[in-house]
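Objective 1.3, modelling of assemblies. Example input:
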Amino acid sequence: MNTVASAAVAAGQLWRWFKDARRFEAASRDPEGAQSAKVLAILRRNKDTEYGRAHGFGSVRSVADFQRNAPITTYESLAPYIDRMAKGEHGLLTADDPLMFAVTSGTTGKAKLIPVTPSYLSEYNHAVQIFMWRVVQDFTEGSSGQFLVTSSCDVEGYTAAGIPYGALSGFIVKRQPALVRSHFVLPYEIALIKDVELKYYLTLRLAVEAPVTLISTLNPSSILLLCEKLQTHAERLIAEVRGGTASALGELEPWLAKALRPKLAPNPRRADELAALFREAGELSPRQIWPKLAGLACWKGGTMPLYFRQLGHWFGDLRTRDRGYMASEGCGSIPLANAGAAGALAITTHFYEFVPVDERERPDPPVVTCEQLQPNRDYYILLTTSAGLYRYDINDVIRVVDYYHDAPVIEFVRKGRGITSLTGEKLAEQQVTAAMMGAVESLGLGQIVRHFTAVPQFGSPPRYAVLLETSDSLAPEQAEALVAALDRQLSDQNVEYETKRESQRLGSPILRLVAPGTYEAYRQTRVTAGTPEAQFKVPHLTPDQDFGRDFKVLEEVG
Amino acid sequence: MTLEEALADAPLFASLDRRHRERLARAMTTRTFEADTTILRQGSSAVTLYLILDGQVEVRRAPEAGAGGTAVLATLGPGDVFGEMALLDDEARSSSVTARQPTTCALLSRWEFQQELHRAPDVAITLLGVLSRRVRQLDERLAQYEERQVVP
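Predicted structure (tokens):
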């Protein structure tokens, strides 16, 4: 393509992003109207489906009509329809057929399949494009380079009807216009690599030669892992950049290796630069090998602060934008600023309803729409999307922390199911995350905690067992101090925990120090089992008492 | 009172001419908070400035976000603004704000606020004064705190 044509295509792409952003801007001054229009459009399109007929979508004229006609759903209640769609039946939940099914990860149980229809993809891309428009506006210096965007494999297999299923992230990357993809460091094929070690190595192999200006991945732990692998493989990377080789290609299936090989060419000049940086600093610092790096984009809320904080070691105070509240089931927010982890409710993307957390257990809990949300109160969020999810309880808790014009700015607080209760303490995952961060800080242990998971353990007394992988060995007195500090911090975080500890109904936590590499192996196991790599999260609290039963425990303290 | 009149009465915006005030009033939205509502929480994301039109709020700050032992920094009423600091430095909210009584605010987003700073340098100069007063108040409180810590 010549320069003029390229410029025209680029302008066209920017224009599309701008149009999406402008539509969102206008809607932010009338979120109630935008949401009403959104839900009515979704219902109108799907009124003749089996589900639409059963719930009178054709007669719905308002949000109130919809709430009267259609029940709140869960995956389990929609699964019979989705299972039939996977077998090739048409017109069940959605008028348009799915292009693929997005697989969502769960810490336990069967994976869920979310129908990705053309209209759903369009909704999702709308939110992504507004996000991208904002990023391009705010990270202007970043737009001149390439984005290191990670994604997962979108074809893990095929349903009985031959419809592919896999990660939505890979599918979205694959369907980006060529111009947008030309700004990505990684070709789509990298997403297809199932071996985590190989995938990270080849990601780095391509990235160290690229003018990376933005790193974007959902989970900050993926960025940390990249930085660590960069050190582990520094000399090998430099040698292979020099020779234009990548020995790891030999471990891939031949067709995949063939697709990636043209990306490699001898680059002695870049190898010299990298070698000089490595000699000087004794490591390959991401800020030095990518001097034009303008920012990071990753999740910062929920259980992510533990990992997000560790990014400072590699990136200092580099600006980081949250990726927003997003899942395979839908997009919930569009971050507008770098501070914090909140974003404006994506009012032009899907339709949202909310149930106050403290009223959810009532027989007939109140359901409110976005204009009725109270600031700094916690709500469960319900989604209605063009994927055929109607009033879908995704089991996530959000909170309004600010407003953008009239649209609420929300942040993800926690998973609803992240709550465990051995004796009525109702401990939430984000409380465990905060307690561990507070404990290591109070002891000056810095960034020693790599990964951890608290597991309820019934016994006499019941207690929490905390599986912990550290970056360095802990002296016995340090481990004991950590148990005590964690116990104190949990009491500070959760008044019921404190009461139960004081009354000895709950025992002190115990630490189970696990072997180095345990969680990396766990990540690989989950990915092999079908969890999209980009979606993988280490649970900091799990109700699954069997979690980590096969982990190699080096020592038990407490 | 119209939004435009409220802007004319607010020290931060009083120096603006009518044209600027009209433009700002068009960009603003209004919202009423019930008494005891936490409007802003320390440590959270920030995209909006709040101008109090009616009611009263209390500004509190904890030593660290989420920690206990908060100190009341200020009580603000009609004409006062809060939430303006995060709009300048792209940092999280530096304090929490709670409505002491039903409170109505006019909200102005960061981007419209910054556009206005570019258009009307007077706002920037006035804002410097507001921020300077806030720093002075913090210094005074710090000094009082340190005095209390001195062993007699």
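Chain B has one domain: 3-149.
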